[in-house]
Design a protein that fits this description.
The chain has 159 residues and is an alpha+beta fold. It has helices at 25-38, 114-128; strands at 3-8, 11-21, 58-63, 75-84, 95-99, 102-109, 138-141, 150-158. The chain has an 8-stranded antiparallel β-sheet.
């Protein structure tokens, strides 16, 4: 399975924030995406865009309960949102996170292969390449792509 290694500077995401039990993520995370998608017009002007005017990306950003971007334990926080221009303010009812700079190991998947590829990264790829996860894993969705438009970002080195 192809894995990319990429360094990313810190970036900002505005989205709908929730927290809950990790084991029940399938129940509470989709609700956050519904709220974010339904109210996207409220943050549209803050969204970061490429040279052609397309959204740069949507993020399912994750953090521990203290919002220090550590890995989830039995609970976690999830921000369903859009990458936005730096130094903007989140409108009422939205949250803004600044994701720290990391070196990431990235693997592409879809909703059907999500668990398999996540497990592969944790049990095979990262250990066999002498990497450890140093923070919360994030989901990246490239707008306009469907089936294979989801990437998992595993932070392997702090900047």
């Amino acid at each position: 399975m192809p894995v990319q290694i990429e360094y990313r500077d810190s970036f900002s995401v505005i989205g709908k924030l929730g927290e809950g039990l990790a084991a029940e993520g399938g129940k509470w995370i989709p609700v956050l995406w519904e709220k974010a998608n339904h109210n996207f017009d409220e943050i549209r002007d803050l969204a970061k865009k490429d040279n052609e005017g397309n959204l740069v990306g949507l993020w399912g950003a994750m953090s521990d309960i203290s919002e220090s971007f550590e890995r989830w334990t039995d609970q976690g926080k999830y921000l369903a949102g859009c990458e936005v221009v730096d130094n903007c303010n989140a409108p009422a009812g939205w949250a803004r996170w600044v994701i720290p700079a990391y070196k990431y190991a990235i693997i592409q998947c879809n909703l059907d292969t999500y668990d398999e590829k996540f497990r592969y990264m944790i049990t095979e790829y990262l250990p066999s390449n002498n990497y450890s996860i140093v923070g919360a894993v994030h989901e990246f969705y490239k707008p306009g792509e469907t089936d294979e438009g989801l990437w998992l970002y595993f932070p392997i080195e702090r900047a």
